[in-house]
Amino acid sequence: MTRLNLISLFIPIMAQVAAFADGGTVQLRKEAGALVITVFTSPAPLSAGPVDISLLLQNRNGLEPVLDADVSLLLRAQDSGSEIRARATREHAQNKLLFAAPIELAEPGKWQLTVTIKRNGERTDVTGTIAVSPTREMVASYWGYIALPPVIIVAFVIHGWLLQRRLDLRGKPCEII
Fold first, then answer.
1. Which residues, other chains included, contact 21 with Cβ-Cβ below 8 Å and sequence gap of 6+?
2. 27 and 69 share a domain?
3. Cα distance between residue 19 and residue 34, in whole Å
4. Run of H or E residues at 15
């Protein structure tokens, strides 16, 4: 495998670490007025820090995507009462069928999400609650994957040592069970 092939293999893997993707976990799906509104959040699980909130708007009849709406978001923390307002646009979304807004959630807990959609002179509001977990340290979230290989190596070494010791005590080879 050439060096260029190897580099081209690892670039997409490394790029996905920092990428925010449209979509994510479905947090809310409601029918209101003539619309079906689906709210997605990323990362999964949703944690305090930078998050992406994406919305898919569809006509109730036929479920065609709605692309000509003005969408705004209001998030209110239930514990502290702090508020975040944002405007979701298609320009923020990689998938142009979605409306998206990058938001910084400062604290974990329950947040009330209110989506306001203005389209053709009509206003539609949808409200729901989303749960935000505390920020996790990257190493702490992967501790099991990091610890498993050394544990297996140590177990293999101990197993070999015990077999060698049994061989030395008996003076003849032993059967592996």
1. 42, 52, 94
2. yes
3. 33
4. helix 3-18
Containing structural domain, residue 83 = 16-135
**Is this structure's pTM higher than 0.90?**
no
Instruction: Provide the token pair at 128.
Output: 């729901």
Q: Which residue has the tokens 């930078």?
A: 50
Q: What CA–CA distance (Å, rounded) separates 73 from 88?
A: 7
C-alpha angle 134/137/138, rounded to 5°? 130
CATH number of 64's domain:
2.60.40.1930
**Least confident interval from 56-60, 148-152, 166-170:** 166-170
Q: How confident is the model at residue 58 (pLDDT cuts 50, 70, 90)?
A: very high
Residue (of 31, 71, 77, 44) closest to 55 by Cα position: 71
Number of compact structural domains in the chain: 2
